[in-house]
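Fill in residues.
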């Protein structure tokens, strides 16, 4: 196969991964639309390699033929970076699902890119350990996708984002070259860190095939409470109080979002009347750890594991409840905590119907625009407001295709240019996720 001719390409790919792992036509449907239904398009084929050698051979073939490739893990991404738009080949990494033995000393574990977060949690739990990052998409989100997006989730306040969990990486460059730095050492400054370069690169620099993950101790006991507040200032007082104990999660919701989840999922709401702002906190230790955090605020403290699960459902089922109302415009922003109140006042004036929730300790709000408010003009106005408040327009989901047009709001022209140079150096033919984060610059276009 020497050209991008469809039949020749597919035959070559079948020769690498086997007949049944090159999907075409209707078999590709589940790979072609994102979780929200907002992004996606046709693909010429979905290719499902079994190991690193097959990933390398597939990429070498596509690179030689000039065929664009979209790496895909669990397809839970929310910014359209993991789905095809215009016929790109989908490279599904889900079959790279090997889990190595746990190193109890570091502690750490080596896993294939296609292993889900839930699988790592399950394996780690058997050793009283945990993956430091957790998120509601845990049953489908893969480690490769989570590293590629530098996923955050609910435990960042305790353990950081994926960036803090990655101790080593194996990846394949666009031309099929395999690069590995899998020592797993806690300290290793022998030159720039490849794993950190690839963390958050959203599939534009290389395809991640395996990762060494740091693991953290699994707390013996945790306590969970839902705490009501009048406004962002009140919610930030809870953050300050919870930082004095050992916080595992500090999540924020608003009355409209809680009411929406209760109606959609039938989860009971333990506070009446419903406060305007609600903070869900989880801390290490027993319920006494929460006494000073709760103070005299309206609250529901979980009495057992089932209670705790119900409180968490009110938070974690926001995403599906939003989806059930129609295709949302999802904004994922961070603002400095000392500007949160001022930001929210202006936000509410622009999009009073938005459903906002998120990870309060990091100032990370997920602002979901729905119905008549889900317009490009509102998206633009909110993201400009974020920039005005010195925040980030892409907090934890990444840029994907959704935020490409707004990247300049919070990254300087010099930075963007430097990042383009890195992309160009690692993928000269521009085949990896060409429309994502930094759309490939082609001199002849
Ligand atoms: P995909 O969606 O398949 O891909 C995401 C990006 O990574 C794409 O750009 C893709 O090209 C690239 N990619 C995937 N695999 C590889 C690889 N092996 N090598 C190179 N590039 C690759 N995100 C958070 O950060 N925090 C949350 O709390 C959170 N909660 C969520 C809750 C729900 C209900 C849902 C649906 C999503 C949530 N997300 C959250 C978003 C999503 O789960 C994360 O972005 C996750 O990291 C994506 O993993 P994935 O395997 O599904 O990646
Ligand atoms: C979450 O924290 O629940 C997510 O990042 C998903 C979302 O924004 O909907
Ligand atoms: Zn989130």
């Amino acid at each position: 196969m020497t050209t991008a001719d469809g039949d020749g390409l597919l035959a070559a790919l079948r020769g690498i991964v086997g007949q049944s792992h090159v999907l075409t036509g209707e078999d590709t449907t589940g790979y072609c639309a994102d979780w929200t239904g907002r992004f996606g398009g046709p693909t010429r084929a979905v290719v499902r390699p079994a190991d690193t050698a097959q990933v390398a051979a597939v990429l070498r073939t596509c690179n030689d033929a000039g065929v664009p490739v979209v790496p895909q893990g669990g397809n839970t991404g929310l910014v359209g970076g993991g789905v095809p738009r215009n016929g790109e080949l989908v490279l599904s990494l889900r079959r790279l699902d090997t889990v190595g033995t746990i190193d109890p000393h570091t502690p750490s574990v080596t896993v294939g890119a296609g292993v889900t977060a839930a699988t790592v949690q399950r394996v780690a739990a058997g050793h009283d350990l945990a993956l430091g990052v957790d998120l509601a998409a845990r049953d489908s989100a893969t480690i490769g996708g989570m590293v590629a997006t530098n996923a955050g989730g609910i435990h960042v306040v305790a353990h950081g984002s994926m960036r803090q969990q990655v101790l080593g990486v194996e990846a394949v460059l666009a031309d099929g070259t395999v690069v590995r730095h899998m020592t797993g050492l806690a300290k290793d400054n022998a030159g720039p860190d490849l794993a950190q370069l690839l963390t958050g690169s959203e599939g534009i620099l290389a395809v991640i095939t395996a990762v060494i993950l740091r693991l953290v101790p699994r707390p013996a006991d945790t306590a969970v409470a839902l705490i009501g507040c009048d406004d962002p200032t009140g919610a930030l007082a809870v953050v300050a109080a919870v930082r004095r104990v050992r916080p595992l999660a500090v999540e924020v919701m608003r009355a409209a979002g809680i009411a929406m989840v209760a109606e959609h999922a039938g989860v009971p709401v333990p506070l009446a009347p419903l406060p305007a702002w609600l903070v869900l906190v989880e801390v290490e230790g027993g319920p006494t750890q929460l006494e000073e955090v709760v103070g005299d605020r309206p609250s529901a403290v979980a009495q057992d594991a089932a209670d705790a699960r119900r409180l968490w459902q009110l938070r974690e089922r926001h995403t599906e409840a939003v989806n059930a109302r129609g295709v949302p415009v999802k904004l994922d922003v961070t603002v400095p905590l000392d500007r949160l109140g001022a930001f929210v006042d202006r936000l509410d004036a622009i999009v009073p119907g938005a459903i906002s929730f998120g990870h309060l300790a990091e100032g990370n709000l997920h602002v979901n625009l729905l119905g008549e408010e889900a317009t490009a003009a509102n998206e633009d106005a909110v993201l400009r407001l974020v920039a005005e408040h010195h925040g980030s327009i892409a907090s934890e989901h990444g840029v994907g295709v959704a935020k490409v047009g707004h990247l300049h709001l919070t990254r300087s022209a010099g930075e963007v240019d430097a990042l383009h140079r890195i992309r160009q150096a690692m993928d000269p033919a521009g085949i990896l996720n060409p429309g994502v984060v930094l759309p490939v610059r082609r001199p002849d276009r």
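The longest strand covers residues 207-217.
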